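Case study: OLC1v1037284C2.
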Amino acid sequence: MGTGKTSLVLRFVKGQFHDYEESTIGAAFFTQVLSLPDAAIKFDVWDTAGQERYHSLAPMYYRGAAAAIVVYDITNMDSFERGKKWVQQLQRHGNASMVVALVANKSDLESNRVVENEEGERYAKENHLLFFEASAKTAHNVNELFYEIGNYFIEVHDYHASTY
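Here is what the predicted structure looks like once written out:
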C-alpha cells in the first residue's frame, strides 16, 4: 500500500476518494484551476510513481517545476525516511525557487500512527518546507495544501496577473 499521493491528487482535482487505488505506473497528469483572492492559478500536476524502479524517471517531471509535494504515510516510518530522500533530491536537482511541501497523509489513521506530527513539522522547518497533515480519505487539509502552495507562490514571486 502506498503513501496516498494519487489519492491526494484525485481528492483535489475530482473531489473523489477510492479505498483501493492502483499504484501509479510511471506518471499520471492532472490539471486543476484554483481561484485565490489575488489570482487564479492553474496547477499542472504530475503524479509520479513512488516505487524505487521508477525513481530514475522522476527528474523529468520535477525539473522546472514551480512546486513539489512529498507525501509520506503517518503509519509507515519507512515512507517518512523515503520522503526525506525525495526532499534531498529535490533540493539538489530541482528548480532553486521551487516551493516544496511535505505532507503527512492518512491523518484519519491516528490510532496506527508511527510518525509523530512533531517529527514531520521539525523536519519541514529544518528544511524550509511547507508542512501539512492531511487525509485524502476525509479530505482533511487537501484543498488547504494547494491553497497554501498557490498563495506562497504568488507571495514569493510577487505576481499580480490573473492566471499563472
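For the exam, be able to explain this: The chain has a mean pLDDT of 84.
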